[in-house]
Amino acid sequence: MRAQVLVVGAGPAGAELARQLAAAGVAVLLVDQLADLSQAAFSSAAMPFASLERFGLPAQVVASRWRGWQLLGPAEQRRCWRASAPIGVVLDFGALRQWLADQCRRFGGQVQLGLRAFDCQPQGAGWRTLLRDRQGAVREVISDWVVDASGQGRALIGPFTPPPRAGEAGRDRVQGVGVEWLLQVPLGCWQSWSDQLSFCLGSDWVAQGYGWIFPMAPGQLKVGVCRLRPDRQLPPLGRVLEQLLARLFSPEERQASAVLDRHGGLISSSIRRRDCHGQGRLLAIGDAVSTANLLGGEGIRHALSSSRVLAPLLLEAIQSGEPLPLRQYEQQLSQRLGWRWSLSGRLARRTWLGLTGPKADQRLSRLLVGLEPRSAEDLAALLFDYRFERYGLKSLPYLVGMR
Ligand SMILES: Cc1cc2nc3c(=O)[nH]c(=O)nc-3n(C[C@H](O)[C@H](O)[C@H](O)COP(=O)(O)OP(=O)(O)OC[C@H]3O[C@@H](n4cnc5c(N)ncnc54)[C@H](O)[C@@H]3O)c2cc1C
Known about the structure:
single chain, FAD/NAD(P)-binding domain, 3 domains, alpha/beta, nine-stranded mixed beta sheet, binds flavin-adenine dinucleotide, 12 helices, D-Amino Acid Oxidase, Chain A, domain 2
């Protein structure tokens, strides 16, 4: 097979880049190891309205809307914030991938599923990529450019580099593991969780992490737990999720519910983002260049942003025949993510990894008490725009890990 640009991975980053390139008339081939993009919808995908508009996403990728927050914990504490109008959406991650890939096809791009890329070597001015199909047969793609959008696994660009500097061994990379179930619940039960994002916080809910309950289509909820690594011999996440369900739902509600899907995955990011972003005509985007932010386990918006940054640079390089200015790509992407992004990465490490017992729970409680007078919109600004300064200058030393 031949293509001008081969994009490996049809997650939000790869599929968005492929649709941008196809819309500009580039002969793009988008491949994914999944045979069906609606499957393995591991992400919960909460996002503010502004992002939905910025990326031009249609109603068909939205599972529900929300206007409030509910924070459960530490222990039995419960806090709620509510806005008068919806603030954001929960995306249907499978539908999002499907829609982006369909758009790519609509603009004349090719999409091939069930192909896993396992090798990529320079050939002439371009690349020769090898992919294995579901029957084990090997296919070859010759392309001028290859974009690794395979997520935190970095299938082609290789392991995260460079290695940590002396004295910061392992500290720059923050890694979390999440498990999530899609539940069909009675409508009355769904209604009590609808219209809001709920989080379970505190070491007795999820040590070194947090849990969540997000409303999906009527009658469906996504319930998940995520924990930062390294964990210190904590119980398996599947068991933590079951305990969480037992605390959140009555025996009758659990009996009347069904698990429609179980999924999970890794989320990984380097706080300083010094990962290799490309070598010549092999480039990387999305989680493959650490765009995910582990404070709220959030990466879809940032993955889409990385494609929006790379697309015009790549188009210009294709048209001019000049090399792509890699340094410019890295700098523009860092600017787009902003300084708050890396501050919140540090905060993620500090907040979640340190959440191991009563002392950390007390500290978390104090922070939550400080949030009480804030509005639901303020909380959205804190969690999605990382507007920590609104939370008060007094908290900044805590946020940067000095307390
Ligand atoms: C449990 C969990 C919950 C999350 N919840 C949220 C949330 O609520 N909100 C949010 O914004 N983010 C969330 N995230 C993070 C978010 O899903 C990621 O940051 C985002 O999907 C990254 O997009 P991406 O396109 O870079 O990579 P991915 O979405 O990981 O896409 C990579 C694609 O590449 C394919 N692929 C991998 N290797 C190969 C190969 N060798 N050959 C071919 N194809 C390959 C994969 O099948 C996949 O489709 C969550 C993550 C997890 C694990």
